[in-house]
Design a protein that fits this description.
Elements lengths: L8 H9 L14 E5 L4 H15 L3 E4 L3 H9 L5 E4 L15 E15 L8 E2 L1 H8 L9 H5 L12 E5 L4 H13 L1 H4 L14 E3 L2 H10 L3 E6 H7 L5 E3 L5 E2 L3 H7 L24 E9 L9 H15 L16 H12 L2 E2 L2 E2 L6
Parallel strand pairs: 1-2, 1-3, 5-9, 6-7, 6-8
Antiparallel strand pairs: 3-11, 4-8, 4-11, 9-10, 12-13
Helix pairs in contact: 1-3, 11-12
């Protein structure tokens, strides 16, 4: 198992056990409970409010981070978990029961910076990797200047701001750099938490944006929606086709125009899509395939299945206004097939859905 992703399964279950006194078992109080990634939290909060207005069903989502959300799902104290990293093949046999991953939207990791008088800065994957590893320490470095010929960047020290907690946002960023930069792959690698050689570590996306905004010369990473909410400038990242692109709904949507596996468990970083922003990922809702466990009623299990169906259908209309990108049609079709596989006592929960 990959300890950088979730730690050992026994470690996860030990952490999850700590939540048991504070959390009511899922499925016993008529409320659908979710927890996990901060990456989609603004969207999930909006969806929970809208779903209650439309259907009268209460759904809660606690943005405690992907790792903690998975721990709570393993402990069966929530109904579903939000995660920006799928559970790896080698880890799936050790989960308490078979799980499914339902894609809910696409999001981008924005590279935010605080460089005076430079709202637009071009960066390549190699430059970003060297900045985050402390190999480039000044904004006036000639390598940065080479891809920003029309901009005069100050002789200003670079301060790296990174996540200190286990984070799906870190995973998406590090997955991209692992694919694009051999030096990164052979040093920091891919994971929810990394052994950062330099920089200031803070917990949560809002804290990253706040710290970058406070420190002149700082650079960090956060979800596109957090960056736009904070009004922060974002670097234009070079994709595999050589195009420099800022994160936007259009460039994020373009990144997913690739062949998808039927289980949707794929990372989109360093996409082949010609006009796609390169630091992009799905975020998933994860739940148990068989829903008859821990005295859950069939009615509660069906409510969960209906909620997840709504997220991948009606909920998609609310995405663009929050700077996420909706699922492409192939991903929706795969999500439908996955949701139809949810069962209660081995009987489909959505057999009557269109």
């Amino acid at each position: 198992m990959n300890a950088t992703r979730y730690g050992t399964v026994w470690g996860i279950l030990a952490v999850a056990a700590c939540w048991l006194p504070a959390c009511q078992a899922a499925g016993t109080d008529g409320i659908l409970t979710g927890a996990g990634a901060t990456f989609p939290a603004p969207l999930y909060t909006r969806w929970c409010e809208l779903y209650f207005r439309q259907n009268g069903m209460r759904v809660t989502y606690d943005p405690v981070g992907s790792g903690t959300g998975i721990s709570q799902l393993y402990a069966k104290t929530i109904d579903w978990s939000g995660s920006d990293a799928f559970i790896a093949d080698e880890d799936l046999p050790f989960t308490p029961a078979p799980l499914v991953h339902i894609p809910t939207c696409l999001g981008a990791v924005a590279i935010v910076h605080n460089v005076p008088n430079a709202p637009e800065i071009n960066l390549t994957a190699a430059l970003l990797a060297d900045i985050l590893r402390g190999q480039i320490t000044q904004w006036s470095d000639r390598r940065i200047a080479a891809v920003n010929p029309q901009r005069h960047l100050l002789d200003l020290a670079i301060t790296v701001v990174h996540r200190s907690d286990a984070s799906g946002t870190t995973f998406i960023l590090s997955d991209y750099l692992t694919k694009a930069v051999p030096a990164w792959r052979n040093s920091l690698g891919r994971g929810r938490q990394l052994s950062w050689p330099v920089g200031l570590g803070v917990g949560g996306s809002d804290a990253v944006a706040t710290m970058v905004g406070r420190v002149s010369g700082a650079i960090g990473y956060t979800e596109m929606t957090h960056a736009q909410k904070a009004g922060m400038p974002c670097a234009r990242m070079q994709n595999r086709q050589g195009e420099f692109l800022a994160p936007s709904v259009e460039s994020v949507t373009a990144a997913a125009q690739i062949d998808l596996p039927t289980d949707t468990r794929v990372y989109l970083g360093n996409t082949h899509a010609p006009h796609g922003y390169p630091i992009v990922g799905f975020t998933w809702a994860i739940c148990y395939r068989e829903q008859n466990y821990d005295q859950r009623s069939r009615a509660h299990a069906r409510q969960l299945a209906q909620w997840l169906w709504w997220m991948t259908h009606d909920g998609q209309r609310q995405i663009g206004s929050l700077s996420y990108a909706p699922l492409p049609d192939p991903a929706v079709k795969h999500a439908e097939a996955i949701l139809r596989s949810l069962t209660y006592n081995d009987h489909p929960l959505l057999e009557d859905f269109p």
